[in-house]
């Protein structure tokens, strides 16, 4: 199905608001609460010049960020609310041009306790691996499959919908590496979210896509890797990360938030509601290893009652996995965004 996109942008419940401020540092706590819209945020000064050194950030649904902006660096005119003009895409800043004393300085290191998790050093050797595939079915609808590894970088589908037998098991307190492979040739990016877990991204790689949806397995081992840089804002603790088509994103975390069954899913809500969600089971630490089902799992139930959607196919063919650069020209002092359609 095509996710719904509303025509207006709300900030704290207000359509295209403004914020009166002073020429000093401000801290913003951002949450993208849209059901499917990605925002690429940019700051534009009074001369319609983008200040990407100040703000250049893509935010997927459910992602949260802390952002610091020093408005003393910019001369942003006070906009008269009666003048009208072009509305900002997100938020307009109206900054008092008078100099204000501000003793705040950004520390050289934001956190003295942060440790970057890496293979072969800070990641414990005793960890599990989980594989999940994001793809489009024959009707052009996105799906999320639980994968079972049957050989070196070779996989078959082990679970397709939420009601399939739970196939991912993690011991409470143990580290696990989640490998999310977006095997669709095109289609939308997906914000992948795991409940009750914080993780760090290990790497992002491009790869060739030898995946055969009809056979529900890889046609040959995944290959053709090309390392892609992680954004700086992707190198801290997160619980949601963007996975683009043709990418393999690997994240790791310690599963100590609770025991029982918890969800992982695409955080585009329309995709989640249509079946891009599944469960991971966590066992108490004192219980030892999680009991796994004996023998081959029963075949998963098929999706029924979903008709092909021609409009979805057209949307997939014309969509972009990355938001294109914002078009500048908005009135001064506005936080703009060009959202992915």
TrEMBL record:
Q: Does the keyword Cell cycle apply?
A: no
Q: Which GO terms describe its molecular function?
A: copper ion binding; oxidoreductase activity
The record ties this protein, via SUPFAM superfamilies, to:
Cupredoxins (SSF49503)
**Keyword set includes Acetylation:** no
Q: Using the record's annotation, list all stretches that form the Plastocyanin-like domain.
A: 154-283
Segment Disordered: which positions?
A: 282-306
InterPro entries named in the record: Cu-oxidase_C, Cu-oxidase_fam, Cu_oxidase_Cu_BS, Cupredoxin
- UniProt KW keywords: Metal-binding
**PANTHER family for this protein:** BILIRUBIN OXIDASE, CUPREDOXIN SUPERFAMILY PROTEIN
Which family, according to UniProt? Belongs to the multicopper oxidase family.
What is the protein's given name?
A: Multicopper oxidase
Its lineage reads: Bacteria, Bacillati, Actinomycetota, Actinomycetes, Pseudonocardiales
């Amino acid at each position: 199905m095509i996710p719904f996109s509303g025509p207006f942008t709300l900030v704290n419940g207000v359509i295209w608001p403004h914020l009166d401020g002073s020429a000093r540092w401000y801290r913003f706590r951002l949450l993208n609460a849209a059901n499917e819209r990605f925002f690429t945020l940019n700051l534009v000064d009074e001369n319609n010049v983008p200040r990407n050194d100040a703000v250049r950030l893509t935010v997927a649904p459910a992602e949260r960020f802390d952002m610091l902006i020093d408005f003393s660096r910019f001369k942003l005119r006070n906009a008269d609310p009666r003048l009208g003009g072009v509305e900002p895409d997100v938020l307009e800043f109206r900054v008092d041009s008078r100099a204000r004393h501000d003793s705040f300085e950004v520390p050289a290191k934001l956190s003295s306790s942060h440790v970057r998790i890496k293979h072969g050093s800070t990641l414990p050797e005793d960890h599990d691996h989980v594989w999940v595939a994001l793809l489009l079915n024959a009707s052009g609808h996105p799906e999320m499959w639980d994968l079972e590894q049957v050989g070196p970088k070779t996989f078959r589908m082990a679970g397709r919908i939420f009601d399939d037998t739970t196939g991912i098991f993690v011991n409470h307190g143990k580290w696990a590496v989640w490998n999310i492979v977006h095997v669709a040739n095109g289609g939308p990016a997906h914000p992948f979210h795991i409940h009750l877990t914080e993780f760090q991204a290990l790497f992002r790689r491009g790869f060739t896509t030898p995946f055969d949806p009809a056979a529900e397995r890889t046609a040959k081992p995944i290959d053709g890797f090309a390392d892609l840089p992680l954004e700086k804002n992707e190198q801290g603790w997160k619980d949601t990360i963007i996975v683009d088509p043709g990418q393999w994103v690997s994240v790791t975390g310690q599963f100590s938030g609770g025991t029982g069954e918890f969800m992982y899913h695409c955080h585009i809500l329309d995709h989640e509601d249509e079946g891009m969600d599944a469960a991971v089971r966590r066992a108490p630490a004192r219980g030892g290893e999680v009991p796994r089902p004996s023998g081959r799992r029963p075949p998963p139930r098929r999706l029924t009652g979903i008709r092909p959607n021609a409009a979805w196919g057209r949307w997939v063919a014309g969509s972009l996995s990355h938001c294109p650069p914002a078009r500048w020209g908005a009135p001064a002092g506005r936080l703009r965004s060009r959202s992915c359609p």
